[in-house]
From TrEMBL:
Organism: Streptomyces daqingensis
Protein's name in the database: ROK family protein
UniProt xrefs under InterPro entries: ATPase_NBD (IPR043129), ROK (IPR000600), ROK_cs (IPR049874)
Domain of life, per lineage: Bacteria
Entry's family note: Belongs to the ROK (NagC/XylR) family.
Residues forming coiled coils: none
Length: 311
């Protein structure tokens, strides 16, 4: 029987995942439900309660000392509420109180999903041993988290490092967040696909109109698909360079579905970064793919819990 486990929750617009995580980052018990993202608040909470119920039914549950949550944001770690852009039913939803109630009053740590990913990469991934890192999730949205001075830096509300909503195009498209020309509006998967389709790209026989379909076409040399990834890479590079200039990071780690495009994304990203990160103290900035994979959210929610509870 394991002691000192964390019940980790990873909440996104597609799925709600949970696991019992031990101090080596091992996932002992898992549970998952689809997120009823368009449903009212209670239905979304019911899906989360099922995940918790499944974890609690495990004999390992007696070793759980705390709950760590990484959620799509924005989150409010102080108030214990979440208002995920992609779960409209949850606006200022009292998530921490609800989870505490259903787990017999265990301590709960809440961070944004980008912060959770940064915690995972700093503990077990590409940012291990680094004093300063920006870790990014590039998928349906673009999120991120920061490691500064060798420690996770979630900020007071748990959202610090939210790179997706830095403006990199002053006269660009308006973003659903209310801003204009945001990194996410250019570099997220759906926006890469939208731009390629608008430019005249058409999917192959498989009909895949997602960013993965565009990546496959780009790898095969399609000029419109290549141009859409080039544009996304430039937006990411501008955001990364701005962050590095501001807080002096050593490495930018890029994960999420879009990063699976590999060199189709990373080659133009490194080129653009050399163009934007020109000051002497940012020139050595490394870019690396994330290493913690699909479990980053769960491992990171647990890591953030230990990290922040321990302070």
């Amino acid at each position: 029987m394991h002691q000192d486990l964390v019940a980790a929750l990873d909440i996104g617009g597609t799925k709600i995942a949970g696991a019992l995580v031990d101090s080596t980052g091992g996932l002992l018990v898992r549970a998952q439900r689809p997120t009823p993202s368009r449903a009212p608040a209670e239905e979304v909470m019911a899906a989360l309660a099922e995940v918790l119920g499944e974890l609690a039914a495990s004999p390992e549950w007696s070793g759980v000392r705390a709950v760590g949550i990484g959620s799509a944001g924005p989150v409010d770690a102080k108030g214990g509420t979440v208002s995920p852009v992609n779960i409209p039913g949850w606006r200022d939803f009292p998530l921490v109180g609800n989870v505490r109630e259903r787990t017999g009053g265990l301590p709960v740590t809440l961070v944004g999903d980008g912060v959770a990913m940064a915690a995972a990469e700093h503990w077990q991934g590409a940012a291990r041993g680094r004093a300063g890192a920006l870790c990014m999730v590039v998928s349906t949205g673009v999120g991120g988290g920061l490691v500064l001075g060798g420690e996770l830096h979630p900020g007071p509300s748990g959202n610090a490092g939210h790179i997706g909503h830095i403006s990199v195009d002053l006269d660009g498209d308006s973003c659903p967040c209310g801003g204009r020309g945001c990194v996410e509006r250019i570099a997220s998967g759906p926006n890469i696909a939208r731009r390629a389709l608008d430019g005249g790209w058409r999917p192959g026989p498989d009909g895949d109109v997602s960013a993965a379909g565009v990546a496959a076409a780009a790898a095969a040399g399609d000029p419109v698909a290549l141009a859409s990834f080039e544009r996304a890479a430039r937006a990411l590079a501008a955001g990364i360079a701005a962050t590095a200039t501001l807080v002096e990071i050593e490495i930018a780690v890029v994960g999420g579905g879009v990063a699976k495009a590999g060199e189709v994304l990373f080659a133009p990203l490194r080129r653009a970064l050399a163009e934007f990160a020109t000051l002497s103290f940012v020139q050595g900035l490394e870019v690396a793919p994330a290493q913690t994979g699909t479990d980053a959210g769960l491992v990171g929610a647990a890591a953030a819990c230990w990290n922040l509870e321990g302070r």
